[in-house]
Amino acid sequence: MTQVLERGVTFVLGGARSGKSAFAEGLIEASGMDATYLATGRALDDEMSERIALHRARRGSSWSTVEEPLDLVEALQRTCAANRAVLVDCLTLWVTNLMMAERDLAAETAKLVATLPLLKGAIMFVSNEVGLGIVPENRMARDFRDHAGRLHQAVANAAATVYFVAAGLPLKMKG
Amino acid sequence: MTQVLERGVTFVLGGARSGKSAFAEGLIEASGMDATYLATGRALDDEMSERIALHRARRGSSWSTVEEPLDLVEALQRTCAANRAVLVDCLTLWVTNLMMAERDLAAETAKLVATLPLLKGAIMFVSNEVGLGIVPENRMARDFRDHAGRLHQAVANAAATVYFVAAGLPLKMKG
Amino acid sequence: MTQVLERGVTFVLGGARSGKSAFAEGLIEASGMDATYLATGRALDDEMSERIALHRARRGSSWSTVEEPLDLVEALQRTCAANRAVLVDCLTLWVTNLMMAERDLAAETAKLVATLPLLKGAIMFVSNEVGLGIVPENRMARDFRDHAGRLHQAVANAAATVYFVAAGLPLKMKG
């Protein structure tokens, strides 16, 4: 792996079980910066708890962890600092949580993008690409796909570096 | 964006809400050619009408619009011209319409590919990649996926330039 | 097509109907090596039989064929040889078969990866990327997606060369 972590925003997009989170964690660990894992997921059921535990075991004890399902911008403002790398994992879970809470997705996306240039240190966003399968049959899944896709475009536009990860291999799309 | 529009066939493939149509529109607007939007979709319900209106608002008034759900080859023959760029948006909707009308997809694909070298100006096809999710449970969705995949291969083979778009970022696959 | 087949492991990942198998077959035919098609699929129903017949018609008579739905490692050990190219088509069907037979997926993946460096000749794995759509609603499909994703990461890590294929066009991810 010859990629290095840059200051500012890095966006890692990939499929389920593509190795995107491990790739992002590896970039941060190689950087020597202080590391925070900002989890947007909640341990609502056994399956999710299991996934969170797996992520935690892989990262080791040198990471601090913040959980914030909804107010991502405020959590970033509290956490980001000059020599700190914050890994937001992941944006699609944030979209899900915002939809459940009936928040305005366009407003939340705009607020996030407006805040990013004001934050210090390195920020990595990890997210699932979900738009490359058959059109889902129910409207909520289609709305979710639309919200996630628009957020991904906005974050990629704000990012200095964008990777697409498949089968654990990163492909640089920007930067 | 340093990409430029070439004469002949350009194919832009991407996921739902990947920014593929906006990328294609941007290439055409930067080219200074006369522009036609060839819509294969029909405003059958509110959701589709909303999407078409959004596309229309983004493109502005300098574009002419043609709607043709089925006879794409004939519409291209009527529309294409030496200094004109025609944006076909999108091939997956055309596949859907052909299946609903019980047309022979292999014959339609062959006819399109045979016609492309005879057309003047620039032609851009936009389409959704739909084959990267779980195998759909119903046969019609699997057939759709097969038809779309075969058409994509044929159009990519005929194209001078092929882009894969994710999160608004183009990746050149050919050309 | 300027790609050439290398000794050792090549992994071709792509969507349904992306042209990934035809791309892999083309690499093998251009290599001049003896060729074996190692099919993991079983002709359980008409749809699958049809797909297998199509694959067979395309490859021609110079290929030998081996069918092995479960014991892939043993089949590779019997088949691989110094001047032989073996095409395993495809890993996702193998995952399906292993799940149906209630095998331990982590153990099977580890055994495959441990065996690969010991095999002679060229080995190509073809597989479907299935993690880029909406999260499936049923747990078995989610488990399948997890198993396939982990296997893909392991095989990509063991491979000298990895391609992602879309619309018939290869994108080199590694090598």
Strand percentage of chain A lies at 15-25%
Would you tell me the overall average pLDDT of chain A? 92
Tell me, briefly, the overall form of chain A. Answer: globular
Strand order of the largest sheet of chain A: 3-2-4-5-1-6-7
Q: List low-confidence stretches of chain A.
A: none
Instruction: Work out the helix count of chain A.
Output: 6
Q: What is the share of helical residues of chain A?
A: 40-55%
Q: For the largest interface in this structure, which chains are involved and how many residues does each contribute?
A: A-B, 27 and 23 residues
Number of strands of chain A: 7
First and last CA, distance of chain A: 16 Å
Radius of gyration of chain A: 15 Å
- For this structure, the quaternary state is homotrimer
SSE class of chain A = alpha/beta
Written account of the structure:
Three copies of one chain form a homotrimer. Chain A is an alpha/beta fold and 175 residues long. Chain A is 43% helix and 25% strand. Chain A has six helices and seven strands, in the order βαβαβαβααβαββ. The longest helix of chain A is centred in the C-terminal third of the chain and has 20 residues, at 139-158. The radius of gyration of chain A is 15 Å and the shape is globular. The two termini of chain A are 16 Å apart. Chains A and B meet through helix 6 and strand 7 of A and helix 6 of B.
Index terms:
homotrimer, alpha/beta, seven-stranded mixed sheet, 6 helices, 7 strands, 175 residues
Task: Give a brief outline of the structure.
Three copies of one chain form a homotrimer. With 175 residues, chain A is of the alpha/beta class. Chain A is built from six helices and seven strands.
